[in-house]
Description:
The complex is a heterodimer.
Chain A (H helix, E strand, L loop, with lengths): L21 E3 L6 H10 L4 H15 L23 E3 L14 H9 L13 E7 L2 E5 L2 H6 L3 E4 H7 L1 H7 L10 H9 L4 E5 L8 E7 L10 E6 L4 E9 L6 E4 L2 E6 L4 E8 L11 E12 L5 E8 L4 E4 L2 E4 L5 E10 L4 E10 L5 E10 L4 E10 L7 E10 L5 E10 L5 E10 L2 H9 L4 H12 L1 H4 L4 H14 L6
Parallel strand pairs in A: 3-7, 6-8, 7-9, 8-11, 9-12, 10-13, 11-13, 12-14, 13-15, 13-16, 14-17, 15-18, 16-18, 17-19, 18-20, 19-21, 20-22, 21-23
Antiparallel strand pairs in A: 1-2, 3-4, 5-6
Chain B lengths: L1 E10 L2 E11 L4 E5 L6 H9 L5 E8 L2 E2 L5 H6 L2 E4 L11 H15 L7 H14 L17 H15 L3 E5 L7 H14 L5 E6 L3 H6 L3 E6 L2 E6 L1 H10 L6
Parallel strand pairs in B: 3-8, 3-9, 6-7, 7-8
Antiparallel strand pairs in B: 1-2, 1-4, 4-5, 9-10
Helix pairs in contact in B: 5-6
Amino acid sequence: MKNENINHNQEYKYGFTTDIENIKAPKGLSEKTIKFISKIKKEPKWMLDWRLKAFNRLKVSKEPDWQKPKFPKINYQDLYYYSAPKSMKDKPKSLDEVDPKLIETYNKLGIPLNEQKKLSGVAVDAVFDSVSVATTFKGELTKKGIIFCPISEAIQKHPDLVKKYLGSVIPISDHYFATLNSAVFTDGSFVYIPPNTRCPMELSTYFRINASETGQFERTLIIADKGSYVSYLEGCTAPMRDENQLHAANVELIALDDAEIKYSTVQNWYPGDKDGVGGIYNFVTKRGACRGKNSKISWTQVETGSAITWKYPSCILQGDNSVGEFYSIAITNNHQKADTGTKMIHLGKNTKSKIISKGISAGKADNTYRGLVDIGRKALNSRNYTQCDSLLMGNKCGAHTVPYIKNKNSSSTIEHEATTSKINEEQLFYCNQRGLNQEEAVSLIVNGFCKDVLQQLPMEFAVEAQKLVGISLEGSVG
Amino acid sequence: MLVIKNLKASVDGKDILKGLNISIKPGELHAIMGPNGSGKSTLANVLSGKVGYKISGELKYEGKNLQEIPIDERAQKGIFLAFQYPTEIPGVNTSNFLRTSLNKVRKAQGKQELDALSFIRIIKEKSNELGMDEKMLSRQLNVGFSGGEKKKNEILQMKILEPNLIILDETDSGLDIDALKIVAEGVNSSRTDKKSFLVITHYQRLLNFINPDFVHILSDGKIVKSGSMKLAEDLEKTGYKGIK
């Protein structure tokens, strides 16, 4: 573990803003805004109709209120739903035409986009506010028949695939924020892996909110055709602002027969300051369908940012013998709140699911694991194993575990283990006595606590995630 | 090396050390014996800097006031405590932990940090000397270790970190005779004219193997008697009640 690399009392290092001229949609949520977005994206009519259908649904839909973290009422008429750098208006044809300011922004974030410095073995789609800025390694992927592009491009170039699968896992009527996203989503990534193809590199999307008073509503759709495999990673950051910004994404995964999707998230949105001012509301709907037999979807998430995180990456295990996995680290410090977990819906026979959740709470933060395991009547011989561990630091934070368990047949088994512990003084003393300072000791102990999840991350990101775990907890033990 | 004058320590209002004096020169090995509750472990904790104690008196290490130096810096300056009950840290690889620790100490001492390969060479050599199974190094730190393995792991760390002042807090308790000999050999092979040892123990057993220069008896927070190895032998015959 490289503790020597941790920079002390590091502020949120992605908090800078890029000064760039924007094109924005008219403020507020209306049919006019939706038509503006659809027009600027040059969308076909079916897409606009789909959005408007969602908008009509939204009018009769209400924000959910069952979650633990409460938040002040959001004035949806006071937000911008589309913001894009002006230079992106006439889409640049190659990276040479991309505004150097944007390239520089991603360089600062450690995501080089230019050809020479590209991350080796990782193809990146960079999304800035409401548009995709650039996608690397496109040529190489195209040779294998793999489609990795902004979803706005997929709507134009691959309408059949989009029409078939968009909204097939998260219907537009699902819940308020999913419906809102369906009406106003701007960009995000689209991935299609053809049959019997193993994607030769990690695919990665890097989301950045820059503009103020702007919500980010990205939409990601990943389809793994029969016998294919893909590993996908998303990262996210935002500038430090006093206002709360809304991020309501929808992510849909579809795995057909014998296909596997591994989806990893390192979420580091701006968490707000020490007193809880500002920060992102991260209200995200992520759902995967194991539609084919023997298919597998695995979610791994490292959630360290956002003022409020509210998400449940889920698996619908339709195909017989399909497998769903959920590995989660959720760290909350200061005034952050997280209500996160998963849903494993077992429908097919011999389906298996595994849930490993590690919640760490420090400062005055509140951390809830909420999960549903639902084994259906016909899902014979299915299994679930759940392990939820919570670690508390200090005595002003909270940790909660709320499992919902339903087993509708007698041949299936569900196991649930849960622990709650406080960071141990003796462990800290031991590490200190071996020359590690308090923050290095905390980072080491917490990384150990999270090991089962961290080792699920792709190699390229595991080291980064380990550092992030340490940094997020700085100043939490005094 | 270490000078302690009139050291008093209390925890939660309870006095434990009540005016302790001891002076250790470079190269010396001092043994402290004493009954349960006499303050032996408190002394080890106070020297290494554990928080939670209220302390008064003089505590000097290499001429510096120890009370002004936090735990991790004391470790970096060469104070090492072999724990009586080494704590388990789940998910943390033993070998990685040792390397992190060693590099922290080396860095503080202005030495170059070791890369993974040179570290593995050192750790292999030292663990072989202690007759340790190499597989132990890839296990989680102290998790599921037997009592003997935990203590050997402490001695391994002592050998690798090369400290100047080594405090062994009842390292011998709970060890079978073979493990005890290995621990004693570990201590003996580390002795130089620059390193000092403070060996806290209940029994004469370990002392037979390591020949202390001085033996002190700690009782009710004070050193009540000091002498040579003969004192430990007398103690074994008469028990603590016979010493006054």
